[in-house]
Amino acid sequence: KFVGVESALDQIGDEDLRREAYRVLYGVTSPHETLDIPESVVSLSEQHNFEVKGFKLPCPQEQLRQPRIVRVAVIQNSIVKPTTDPLEDQYVAIEGKIEKMIDAAAAMGANITCLQEAWTGAFFFCTRERYPWSELAEDPEEGRSTKFIQKMAKKYNMVIISPILERDEEHGETIWNTAVVVGNKGNYIGKHRKNHIPRVGDFNESTYYMEGDDGHPVFNTQFGKIAVNICYGRHHPFNWAMFGINGAEIVFNPSATVGALSEPLWGIEARNAAIANSYFSFAINRVGTESFANEFTSGDGKPAHKDFGHFYGSSYCASPDGSRTPGLSRTRDGVLVTEIDLNLRRQVKDKWGFSMTARLPLYAESYGQASKKDFKRQIINDPLA
User: Fold this and answer.
1) Is 114 labeled as catalytic in the residue annotation?
2) Is 117 a catalytic residue?
3) Which of 8, 179, 221, 336 would give a disulfide with 163, using CB separation of 3.0 to 4.6 Å?
4) Where are the beta strands (DSSP E) in 89-204?
């Protein structure tokens, strides 16, 4: 059974060949440096059927600056109850699962934890059915899930990113796809709304909400400057770039995506973003197959069906030097904890000079022109062609 690329690579019998494959594909010679997993975490994960992985990405020690070590956790999970069960039962079951997984992240020493996109329920957007699903939308500051996350954040002195469906009570009860950022004292820091909304196959999200309106905020927390590029935004390089320009040191990409659509892109995009923008990126995807009561189609010529396809998990961390961790399983719930040194960002900038050579004024002018209705493409034709 194919559970991830690493499981295939690890079957290479020749040790030298395997190490070279990891060096080229992952930027780290196999095996990766791992974190100790306490027996209490092993027991917890076995009891509640999720995997735990921990890695340390390398960073050279500097002479003048002290290390800025941060442990970052990401959580991928399947739903618990059938989508036909009452919403209350579905939410309570998922919250119970997430609580145990946050417990595990905390026991691994995580300072920051990010959950997957729209973690409070099934990824129902394929159905285009507003009810009962719209009932999951909640106030980002006072909502039920935020209160739960605040409790966990305060308990463990942990910053937690909680992607939810937001209900904006002040502006016509509009719905948004939103990531709530909770500080390590249990305080609400802020939120970010999804900038790019897919209209691809079963991803009919514009039935429920439209593009976000709050730019590219970066949240300055006790453990570093973080940002959230929600799901489909990972396909847009400028989206990644603006978080970096605004000073992000870590950018999370909480997602929900299926194998038939995007799996060949998955291991590339967040890693490319980390390299191009000299920050750490974390790609988080849900896992499992979610089936709904009524069949749906999406105008793509495919027969009517009741499920989205398989959400393939495979969450991972990528470093600004191009290295990355192995991913979590593509078939199981899991917690990935990565120890990073934020000093690596400056080291990579000094080595490669990407920021110094970015030429923002050139591209600002070019894209400004491209956004105008009278824009003419800069094409020089061969007069003899």
Assistant:
1) no
2) yes
3) 179
4) 112-114, 159-168, 174-182, 188-193, 199-200, 203-204
